[in-house]
Amino acid sequence: MLAGNALIGQSGGPTSVINTSLLGVLETARKSKPIQRVFGMRFGIEGVLGDHLVDFSNEDAAVLKGLRGTPGSALGSSRLKLKDEHFPAVLKQLKKYNIRYYFMIGGNDTMDTIHRVVKYAGENGHEMIGVGVPKTVDNDLFGTDHTPGFPSAARYVAMSVLQGGLLAKDMQRVDQFVVFQTVGRSAGWLPAAAACARGNGLTAPHVILFPESSFVRDAFLNVVKKAQEKHGFVSIVCGEGIRDADGQPVSASQTRDKFNNVEFGAMGGTSAAMMLHRMISDEFGWRGEFQVTESLQMCAADRGLKLDLDEAYACGKEAVRLALAGTSGVMVTMQRVGKKTDPYQIGFGTIPLGEVANHERPMPDNFISKDGFDVTKAFLDYAKPLVGELPTYSVLAAKKGKA
């Protein structure tokens, strides 16, 4: 068992429970004898390169407890892509602080960072254990049933579409349509979650667009027209990363980040929701609105779920347990256990970091309807235990009274 210090960081976009995973790592690591001190990197790997680390040895326990449910990324985040020239400086810092345990909370790119840092350190004589803690509202990490942060963000989307659908239904003589955009570069898990809003007489959303399904303008406008004729208004939900058959983003953004990912909310581009709004207005002459909440889905602590908080903490705790057992080069995963008819429960597993870094997890075909504009019962069975029960609102009868 290695004796030395631990280093923990956060990277990429936040979730409403990412700080709870941080708490799980901190509380578990601080109680572990082989781990002598725990350091946090400010603004991800940039904190290592800039020698800006936080020593948690003297941090008040009450402050740490307060991390549970605190939105944002308490240590600060980063999207710096490590280049070959960075590694000697990173290794120098790891040796300076005697870092033997390395934890990071993040998504695909974060897992790649852990993998590369631990590999480089080992090749240069510095033994170190690295374990990743999953995080992303996109829910697109390979090898896990879902990611901490997704359930709360999914509930945010479902609640927003539920309440926005009520508004749109009542305002249909003013606005004939509404477009709600979720985050999600290449996977449709969050727009799909909007389907959980239906029920108790509420029909929204009527059209859901997924990055996994090629966007076809004429087919889209046709299904929009039919929904408006049937319901008197149409509620549309889209993922920010929807693309046409040629792979061109509907948002038409050409701005890319340091990992070569399209930045859908970047300056110089438009949002997918804005483009859809323009298409519908130009085609039918209807008045409508679009709703682009951007990072609010990623930090809405007021809609954070207890299930999500508990699982996020448990993932952080499991990462330390694995590391102390000598397991390195893996990410913590969650898998559903028991039969499909049993109450929801999860167990923990692992997946090699390299597999997570090199794969994404799109929505499976059996979760998307054949026409590409809705979800299936299989998705609802998957999602509803995560999203939880939604409020029941009153919907007045639409029948005309008789004198």
Automatic annotation (TrEMBL):
Residues 7-272 form the Phosphofructokinase domain. Substrate binds at T136, V137, D138, V183, G184, R185, E240. Its cofactor is Mg(2+). GO terms for molecular function: 6-phosphofructokinase activity; diphosphate-fructose-6-phosphate 1-phosphotransferase activity; metal ion binding. It is found in: Cytoplasm. The keyword Cytoplasm applies. GO terms for biological process: fructose 6-phosphate metabolic process. One of its GO terms (cellular component) is cytoplasm. The record marks K135 as: Important for catalytic activity. It catalyses: beta-D-fructose 6-phosphate + diphosphate = beta-D-fructose 1,6-bisphosphate + phosphate + H(+). The record marks D109 as: Important for catalytic activity and substrate specificity. Keywords: Cytoplasm, Glycolysis, Kinase, Magnesium, Metal-binding, Transferase. The active site is at D138. InterPro entries: ATP_PFK (IPR022953), PFKA (IPR050929), Phosphofructokinase_dom (IPR000023), PKF_sf (IPR035966), PPi-PFK (IPR011404). Diphosphate binds at G13. Non-allosteric. It holds the Pfam family PFK. Pathway: Carbohydrate degradation; glycolysis; D-glyceraldehyde 3-phosphate and glycerone phosphate from D-glucose: step 3/4. Mg(2+) binds at N108. NCBIfam families: PRK14072.1. Belongs to the phosphofructokinase type A (PFKA) family. PPi-dependent PFK group II subfamily. Clade 'B2' sub-subfamily. PANTHER family: ATP-DEPENDENT 6-PHOSPHOFRUCTOKINASE 1. Catalyzes the phosphorylation of D-fructose 6-phosphate, the first committing step of glycolysis. Uses inorganic phosphate (PPi) as phosphoryl donor instead of ATP like common ATP-dependent phosphofructokinases (ATP-PFKs), which renders the reaction reversible, and can thus function both in glycolysis and gluconeogenesis. Consistently, PPi-PFK can replace the enzymes of both the forward (ATP-PFK) and reverse (fructose-bisphosphatase (FBPase)) reactions. Homodimer. This is Pyrophosphate--fructose 6-phosphate 1-phosphotransferase. It comes from Planctopirus ephydatiae.
